[in-house]
């Protein structure tokens, strides 16, 4: 092992290296992201593609990749792979950098960079000991010298983050234009009855059952103060039927809690209103008897908070500061939507949910960073019906936003503290190495789009850890226009949809500029919640028409949140995977005893979509192609109802059954005909009058290039790969005579 100090250098083997930007795993310390910059002789990048990081994880040459995070032995590491023989001749240096999220490098314990050879031996290790207020750091660099590669410990800090560091090496990061200031809403005395100030109470806990209209939930005596919102006296308004609430200027701008009570049976919902006095965000939507719930809402600084409230019976709405939120310490129980505060260390959270009155109600929990409540929220739980589940939770301070239609319980179990111990200069701590994955060259960037095809400000959007995530919600039929957060690239649409009570299923259609429709989703194939791919062709916007729907919500996520498909995975419902590697096959197996829809589809960089496998209501495993284009990847879409469980496993092409004289199977399959092209007898046991067998010729990348037949009997079978698509019956392909 070679340990070097700042400014020193050491030779490294000119082969495949794995580089870790690592730190000690101490709860509450800032996160660190690793990146690599490929520089020419002038010390500059040649274009945007020469920056490799978590949102652009592979260089077009295949020489540098960002391969993810690993932890173990009290260490956290962000990993890069460098295939030095594949580094292009005009690249003279590969700089290894880190950027700090939510703090400075002075607060990062045990910051270090180390390189390992193909055998896992550490060939260079440098630990940073002089970091202070920097938010980005050049840790080291690999450089050419006299036909060899060396590593130098640099240790140069930046106060301007990854964007400033990238600019210093020649990447033009354009700042987004400042939005035009919003016109202030003029003060007015018109409107509903003014809200009455409600004094803070410290009474006994509220008893179970209906809540009196003049009762405000007390602040727990042992609650830890939560300083991430304005303080003010709670205000309340009561009504029946439909009403509009305008919050006075006594409530300063910032996040607030809106608490609502609705007495008796019936429907209750509430929306915030826009400056144009139209429905904006859905706050409550519930039919629980004696409903009571809390939600997070924002009082903007350019207008007063206004709410449209509708209830079948008497209701009370109270606007309160975040300080009234209940704290998740140990076990917390609730009934309906809630806002919780979590200020502990990293933990596992156990959730129990009753399933609601109908046994099929939804239970959703989001976590929000208390320092950035308007930013993106992370999904912790999302399921329907009775459940007992566990999920990981990062360290606080966080807000947990619970959406539920029945009794629930959350229990936080903090992880055992790990004593980091003193740093050992003579023997650096071991770092967990993630599983090696093959590196495949491809023409475009990490998303299959070349540098010249990207929007001018595309890189700036990928430099941020989070993106603006457009959220839409409502109830009932509506046409929604969704804007692509990064035109030219796809995005993930996360959805939660309930059927309208008067219909058996919902339907969502795509509308073109002439209002012609194309089927996009329906409840029989996608269930009530899940993920799908949107903007598959990089469109700037799409229009969706929602029909026969009850309450619904749509949320756009960056395509980087697609789960990597490696090895064997299991899950439920519709989701999106990203597969990177050579052409391969995937087996699909149903894990639940239902006969609902379960398909997989591949989507390429150009948006071309083709079916890969379908179980046709059977539990028997089926096999389909993972078509990978010249871009080096594809997306795999799983289409299933939320309750349908599945297992997917990838396998190399050499596992495909080869035949010359005869091959047989049942359901979807991929086979290889090794003999010359010839007429062969195709037999199929159909499972219904409209159950057909289709044979498709595949090229070497597994793209379907020609439909061979749609029927049994004598068919021309070419040499090479053939996909069998059928409804689940037994089939055979056999040479004549």
Whole-number mean pLDDT: 79
Radius of gyration, whole Å: 29 Å
Low-pLDDT residue spans: 175-225, 418-426, 432-458, 464-469
Main pleated-sheet profile: 7 strands, antiparallel
β-strand number: 53
* Helix/strand class: mainly beta
Helix content: under 10%
Number of helices: 3
Please indicate the percent range of residues in DSSP E strands (runs of 2 or more): over 45%
Oligomeric state, counting identical vs distinct chains: single chain
Distance between termini? 67 Å
Shape: flat
Family: Belongs to the CAPAB/TerDEXZ family.
Organism: Streptomyces sp. R35
Pfam families: TerD
InterPro entries: Stress/Tellurium_Resist, TerD
Report on the architecture of this protein:
The chain has 737 residues and is an all-beta fold. It contains 3 helices and 53 strands. The strands form 11 sheets. Strands 12, 13, 14, 15, 16, 17 and 18 form a 7-stranded antiparallel beta sheet that branches. A 6-stranded antiparallel beta sheet has the order 1-11-10-7-3-4. The chain has a 5-stranded antiparallel beta sheet with strand order 5-6-2-8-9, with no helix packed on it. A hairpin with an 8-residue loop joins strand 23 (362-369) and strand 24 (378-384). It starts with 8 loop residues before the first strand and ends with a strand. It is 2% helix and 48% strand.
């Amino acid at each position: 092992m070679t340990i070097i100090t700042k400014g020193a250098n050491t030779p490294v083997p000119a082969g495949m290296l794995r580089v870790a930007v690592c730190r000690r795993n101490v709860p509450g310390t800032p996160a660190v992201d690793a990146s690599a910059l490929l520089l020419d002789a002038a010390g500059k990048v040649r274009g945007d593609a020469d920056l490799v990081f978590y949102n652009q994880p592979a260089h077009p040459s295949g020489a540098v990749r960002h391969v993810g995070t690993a932890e173990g032995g009290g260490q956290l590491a962000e990993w890069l792979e460098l295939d030095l023989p594949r580094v292009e001749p005009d690249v003279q240096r590969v700089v290894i950098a880190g950027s700090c999220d939510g703090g400075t490098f002075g607060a990062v314990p045990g910051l270090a960079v180390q390189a390992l050879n193909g055998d896992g031996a550490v060939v260079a290790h440098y630990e940073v000991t002089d970091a202070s207020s920097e938010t980005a750091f050049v840790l080291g660099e690999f450089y050419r010298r006299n036909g060899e590669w060396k590593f130098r410990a640099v240790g140069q800090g930046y106060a301007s983050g990854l964007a400033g560091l990238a600019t210093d090496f020649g990447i033009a990061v354009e700042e987004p234009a400042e939005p035009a200031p919003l016109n202030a809403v003029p003060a007015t005395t018109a409107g509903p009855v003014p809200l009455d100030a409600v004094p803070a109470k410290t009474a006994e806990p509220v008893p179970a059952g209906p809540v009196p209209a003049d009762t405000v939930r007390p602040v727990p005596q042992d609650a830890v103060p939560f300083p991430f919102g304005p303080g003010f006296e709670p205000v309340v308004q009561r009504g029946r039927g439909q009403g509009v609430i305008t919050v006075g200027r006594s409530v300063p701008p910032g996040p607030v809690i809106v608490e609502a009570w609705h007495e008796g049976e019936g429907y209750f919902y509430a929306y915030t209103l826009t400056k144009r006095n139209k429905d904006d965000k859905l706050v409550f939507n519930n039919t629980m008897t004696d409903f009571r719930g809390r939600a997070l809402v924002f009082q903007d600084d350019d207008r007063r908070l206004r709410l449209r409230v509708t209830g079948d019976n008497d209701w009370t709405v109270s606007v309160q500061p975040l300080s009234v939120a209940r704290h998740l310490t140990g076990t917390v129980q609730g009934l309906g939507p809630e806002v919780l505060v979590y200020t502990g260390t990293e933990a596992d959270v156990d959730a129990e949910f009753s399933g609601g009155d109908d046994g099929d109600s939804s239970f959703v929990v989001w976590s929000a960073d208390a320092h950035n409540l308007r930013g993106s929220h992370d999904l912790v739980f999302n399921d329907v019906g009775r459940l007992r589940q566990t999920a990981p939770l990062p360290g606080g301070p966080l807000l947990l936003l619970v959406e539920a239609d029945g009794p629930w319980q959350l229990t936080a179990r903090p992880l055992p503290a790990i004593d980091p111990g003193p740093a050992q200069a003579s023997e650096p701590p071991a770092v967990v190495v993630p599983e090696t994955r093959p590196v495949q060259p491809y023409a475009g960037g990490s998303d299959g789009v070349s540098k010249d095809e990207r929007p001018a400000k595309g890189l700036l959007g990928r430099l941020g850890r989070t993106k603006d995530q457009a959220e839409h919600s409502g109830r009932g039929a509506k046409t929604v226009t969704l804007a692509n957060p990064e035109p030219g690239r796809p995005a993930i649409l996360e959805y939660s949809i309930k059927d309208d009570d008067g219909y058996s299923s919902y339907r969502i259609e795509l509308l073109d500029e002439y209002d012609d429709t194309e089927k996009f989703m329906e409840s029989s194939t996608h269930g009530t919640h899940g993920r799908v791919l949107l903007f598959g062709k990089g469109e700037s916007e799409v229009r969706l028409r929602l029909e026969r729907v009850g309450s619904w919500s749509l949320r756009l996520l960056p395509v980087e949140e697609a789960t990597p498909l490696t090895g064997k995975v299991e899950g439920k419902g519709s989701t999106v995977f990203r597969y990177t590697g050579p052409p391969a096959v995937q087996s699909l197996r149903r894990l639940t005893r239902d006969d609902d829809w379960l398909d997989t589809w591949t989507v390429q960089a150009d948006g071309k979509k083709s079916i890969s496998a379908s179980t046709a209501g059977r539990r028997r495993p089926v096999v389909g192609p993972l078509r990978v284009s010249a871009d080096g990847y594809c997306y795999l879409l799983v289409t299933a109802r939320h309750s349908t469980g599945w297992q997917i496993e990838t396998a190399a092409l050499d596992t495909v059954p080869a035949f010359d004289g005869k091959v047989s199977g049942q359901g979807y399959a991929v086979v290889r005909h090794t003999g010359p092209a010839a007429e062969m007898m195709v037999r199929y046991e159909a499972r219904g009058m409209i159950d057909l067998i289709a044979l498709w010729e595949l090229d070497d990348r597994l793209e379907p290039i020609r439909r061979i037949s749609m029927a049994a009997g004598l068919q021309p079978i070419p040499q090479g790969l053939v996909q069998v698509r059928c409804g689940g019956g037994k089939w055979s392909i056999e040479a004549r005579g």
